[in-house]
Write a structure and sequence with these properties.
The structure is a single chain. The chain is α+β, with helices and mostly antiparallel strands and 400 residues long. The protein has nine helices and 20 strands. Strands 1, 2, 14, 15, 18 and 19 form a six-stranded antiparallel sheet that branches. Strands 4, 5, 6, 7, 8 and 9 form a six-stranded antiparallel sheet that branches. The two termini are 28 Å apart.
Length: 400
């Protein structure tokens, strides 16, 4: 299977300078290939930063830290892209970002992003966490944390506020659109140590294997194969993969799972800003059992890549609701050895499904659309009577 280079690639922001046009300091260095206009802009930017800094040093009333000014410059550079998925991380923020990919952190269990309306938007709650148990849903807007207002551009600050020591509480002010009207509620959550078991397998009646993938982390592909083969040994002849409320994660993990399910085929193609295409492909070896996939509005990024690959290659039927619609890929750039000086994340490509479909901002509509009830207490095998999407998936997979 062809991989996307050596750098760590994330397909979704998890719960928030090289490559810039100028270098801070007294000695201006031209960026290779920069035009005369770009070099003039670089000099102007550097001149203005020095001017502003001198004014702050001379006249600003309150105490401040010089390192905070430097951090603000870097964060502002990425904020200027107006892209919620590209941002600068301090050393501590970068460390926590890397911890997220292991599936272990302390908090409430929300995956969030900055929406186009500059509001902090829930991509999905993580299964069996305080946020999920409290009923938070994809599309909810987090406007305050403990009474402090946060906008989308303050995503990292809001994330830090929601995290904390286990057994401590935090109150979220949440906006949700119901019947065309925005309703506001206050939700009190108790933080827990979140240890995401990203793959859960269960043998259902009629020898149907059920596999829920809650996110794509470092161990997810390995755990997926282990659970699939364990269900086969228990007698599973057909399978359902549940990607509902899966916000994405590591592209490499998603690719490995797609590789296990597909024969020789294209998984996904990325296109960079120069139009260069790079295709990820699977080999001939595969699990061949009949398959149905579940998805909903909380299925994003890597989930959509897997869904698109299975759909376009006619490997699986899909059931549920339209997905989130995140079709761009970010690359992590560490600063210093292993990110000891922080890092940044930059959107560097758009992805296409094997049929060439762009889904960013559009999502993928499943083959069979089934709406989930608004007041359902849960979903999955333990809530089968309240889960019409899983009921329909069982019906479909029996017919394959």
């Amino acid at each position: 299977m062809k991989k996307f280079g050596k750098a760590l690639i994330l397909v979704l922001l998890l719960v928030a300078v090289g490559g810039g046009g100028f270098i801070l300091g007294n000695n201006m260095q031209a960026v290779p290939g920069a035009s005369t206009e770009e070099q003039a802009a670089d000099r102007r930017i550097l001149k203005n930063i020095n001017l502003y800094r001198e004014a702050i040093q001379s006249d600003y009333l309150f105490p401040y830290k010089k390192e905070d000014l430097e951090t603000g410059i870097y964060k502002g550079l990425f904020w200027g892209l107006k892209d919620p998925y590209s941002e600068y991380y301090t050393a501590e923020e970068y460390k926590r970002l890397m911890e997220d990919t292991t599936g272990k952190f302390a908090g409430v269990g929300l995956v969030i992003t900055a929406g186009e309306d500059n509001l902090i938007t829930v991509v999905s709650p993580i299964a069996n966490t305080p946020a999920a148990k409290a009923g938070l849903k994809a599309g909810d807007k987090i406007v305050e944390v403990d009474g402090q207002a946060y906008a989308g551009k303050e995503l990292q600050e809001a994330t830090e506020h929601m995290r904390g020591k286990p057994k401590t509480s935090v109150e979220l002010t949440v906006q949700r659109v119901i019947n065309g009207k925005t309703q506001t509620s206050h939700v009190k959550l108790v933080r827990e140590m979140i240890e995401v078991d990203t793959v859960i397998g269960k043998l259902m009646p009629d020898n149907i294997g059920y596999l829920q993938i809650s996110s794509f982390e470092q161990v997810t592909a390995q755990d997926f194969k282990k659970e699939w083969e364990a269900l086969e040994k228990q007698g599973a002849k057909k399978f359902i993969i549940d990607l509902r409320n899966n916000p994405g994660g590591l592209l490499t993990s998603c690719e490995e799972i797609a590789d296990a399910l597909l024969g020789k085929a294209t998984i996904v193609t990325t296109v960079d800003n120069k139009g260069k295409k790079d295709a990820s492909t699977s080999d001939e070896a595969q699990y061949k059992e009949p398959l149905v996939v579940l998805a909903n509005g909380g299925s994003a990024s890597a989930s959509e890549i897997l869904l698109g690959a299975l759909r376009d290659n006619k490997r699986a039927k899909s059931v549920g609701e339209k997905t989130f619609g995140k079709g761009i890929v970010q690359q992590i750039y560490p600063l210093g050895e292993n990110g000891k000086d922080g890092g940044f994340k930059l959107t560097m490509a758009e992805y296409l499904t094997p049929n060439g479909e762009k889904i960013h901002g559009k999502g993928i509509t499943p083959d069979i659309v089934v709406k989930a009830p608004e007041q359902a207490k849960g979903m999955g095998p333990d809530f089968l009577k309240e889960d019409p999407q899983l009921q329909r998936a069982l019906q479909e997979v029996k017919g394959l």
